Amino acid sequence: MKISEQKQHFKKQLSGLFPSEEIQSFFNILSEKYLNLSRIEIALNPDRKISETEAEKFQRALLRLKNHEPIQYIIGETEFYGLPFKVNKHTLIPRPETEELVEWILSEQKLTTHYSLLTTILDIGTGSGCIAISLAKNLPNSKISALDISEEALKIARENAETNKVEVDFFQTDILVAETLPKKYNVIVSNPPYVRELEKKQMQQNVLKYEPDSALYVSNEDPLLFYRVISQLAKNHLQPNGKLFFEINEYLADELTDLLKNEGFKNIEIKKDIFGKDRMLKSTLNESAR
Ligand code: GLN
Question: Which atom of ligand 1 is nearest to the CA of 247?
Answer without folding.
Answer: 9
